[in-house]
Every structure is written in structure tokens, then in C-alpha cells.
Design a protein that fits this description.
3% strand; two-stranded antiparallel sheet; 2 domains; mainly alpha; 51% helix; 294 residues
Length: 294
């Protein structure tokens, strides 16, 4: 647990538990956890302007780009982070590994050895319960998008075509790596006519999917949904929202069950492997706005 102590927070309040680096498998999630916990107020230590000044930057723009995954932190910035968080030697090494993992992922390079090293440092075993290919397919939102695109009747096995079909949201290196990972776990197969095809036999990604992979998947899909809100015509997308007062003890489990049944029925009705000509994503979120109302 990091022991860094901060004062002068709004009304003297501090979060009950500081973010712990080894609880994260993504360095950006860790950084944003501190911004969420300590950067809410103008005088908070992790308010972007205050943080940037403390790290020696004239403006918070470089820091904001790192927090939004628009750029990787430089070596100098990683050193500054380590000093600011008062990382131990093991924490500093783990943070550097997480950055290097992201760097290699963006280049479409193998990260399996780095993931093993990172999991050993953090003491987390869940990442080891499935292999890298399985973890990556679940974690990276675009893997399932590519898998569905392969079944499209207009599909062309060409990196340029896939790159444009997915609205240039990911690099060609990421596409190539994702296809190989999908092949490695049996979700895609080589095909003499189309080049690749979806495996008609149902497969799964492992006996236990790490929560980190699932979180990364949903986070990526939420980002795509937010972009679609601005980029896509209203005739091609639908966003619905509902805010309601619910009996948490009596009705919540039934609500979860109703949503699960709806998703299953929706999938059976609209999934079409033969005549499908577009790849769509259905996202639904049911979560609690409030806390401790008793």
C-alpha cells in the first residue's frame, strides 16, 4: 500500500483507501484512480494542473494525453511518477513493465513474457489462469469486432480493407495481432477460399476469465459508444437511458436476470451469419447511482 499522505483536501476528507499499484493491470487505470480520488478539487494534489506543476510541466496537456491513452509516458515522466508516488523498487519495476506491455501491444508484438513477469511481481494469479492469447481476445474490444466482421458476407481478408471497415480505430499491426490471437484460441480458422473464417464449433476463452480482461473489454466498448454518439448518424445508432428508483434487496437479482434473458433472446433473433452485412455492438449498463441511503 502506498503511504503517501496528502492534506488540504476539500473539507479535510480523504478516500478511505489509496489506490494500490499492484491491484492494477493497466498503468492508466492506476493513474486515473488517483485523479478520481484526489483530483476532484482545484487544490487537490492530483488535480491535473497541480500535478503537472509538481512534475515540472508548464501545462497539464502532456499529462492529460497520457491519462487518455493518447500517448505513452516518456522515460523522464515515468521517473517523475515513481518519485511522486514514492514507489518501492518493485513498484517502479512493475509500473515500467505495464508501460512496456502497452507499448508492445500497440505495435502488435508478443507480450506473453512481460505479462508473466508482471504477474509474478504483483503476486496476482488470475492473469495466469488463461494464456495471453485468451486474455488479449477478451481484453481488447476489437478482437470480437474482427471475429464478427469475418462472418460478414462482404468481408475481404486484407489488412487495409479491415482497417477502413473498422473506421480506422485501430492500427494494422493490432489487426494482424488480433487475427493471430483469434486463430490461436480457435475462434478463427484458415480458409482456402476466404483466407480466414469463423470457427463454426463454439469455443470458449478459458475456465476463468480475469476480471481485468472483462473490465478492459467493457471500457473499450464504452469508449467506442461515446465516439459513435458524435460520429454516427442517428439513423444508424440508438441510445436509450433509464433512471429509476428500485428496491435493491427485492428486485435487483430479477432485474439482472431479465437483462440476461433479453440479451440472449436478442442475440438469437438478430445474429445472422449468412446475410449479415454490418457489425453492430449492443451495450447496456445497469448500475447504482447512490450509496448508503439507509
Amino acid at each position: 500500500m502506498l503511504e503517501t499522505s496528502f492534506t488540504n483536501l476539500s473539507q479535510g476528507r480523504e478516500p478511505k483507501a489509496k489506490p494500490r499499484l499492484f491491484d492494477f493491470t493497466d498503468y492508466v487505470d492506476f493513474l486515473n484512480a488517483y485523479v478520481g480520488a484526489y483530483g476532484k478539487y482545484s487544490h487537490g494534489p492530483y488535480n491535473l494542473k497541480n500535478w503537472a506543476n509538481r512534475l515540472g510541466y508548464r501545462s497539464p496537456s502532456s499529462l492529460a494525453m497520457v491519462l487518455n491513452k493518447q500517448r505513452l509516458p516518456t522515460w523522464k515522466m515515468m521517473v517523475s511518477f515513481s518519485e511522486d508516488f514514492k514507489f518501492s523498487k518493485g513498484e517502479r519495476k512493475y509500473f515500467e513493465l505495464l508501460v512496456e506491455i502497452e507499448r508492445k501491444k500497440q505495435s502488435g508484438l508478443d507480450i506473453s513474457e512481460l505479462m508473466v513477469e508482471a504477474s509474478q511481481l504483483s503476486g496476482m494469479s488470475e492473469v495466469q489462469q488463461i494464456n495471453y492469447d485468451q486474455f488479449s481476445v477478451v481484453s481488447d474490444w476489437y478482437c470480437y469486432a474482427i471475429k464478427s466482421l469475418v462472418s460478414n458476407k462482404k468481408f475481404v481478408y486484407d489488412l487495409d480493407w479491415i482497417f477502413k471497415a473498422l473506421r480506422r480505430k485501430i492500427s494494422k499491426a493490432q489487426i494482424k495481432n488480433a487475427i493471430q490471437n483469434l486463430k490461436n484460441i480457435g475462434l478463427l480458422l484458415d480458409d482456402p477460399v476466404k483466407g480466414i473464417k469463423e470457427n463454426p464449433v463454439k469455443t470458449h476463452t478459458g475456465n476463468q476469465v480475469p476480471s481485468a480482461a472483462i473490465k478492459n473489454h467493457h471500457r473499450g466498448m464504452l469508449v467506442q459508444a461515446a465516439q459513435a454518439l458524435d460520429e454516427q448518424d442517428v439513423n444508424n445508432r440508438m441510445f436509450q437511458g433509464l433512471t429509476l428508483n428500485i428496491n435493491k434487496e427485492e428486485d435487483l437479482k430479477d432485474a439482472f436476470s431479465d437483462i440476461t434473458n433479453f440479451v440472449s433472446e436478442f442475440n438469437e433473433k438478430y445474429r445472422n451469419d449468412v446475410t449479415g452485412n454490418a457489425v453492430y455492438q449492443l451495450n447496456m449498463q445497469l448500475f447504482e447511482h447512490t450509496k448508503d441511503l439507509e
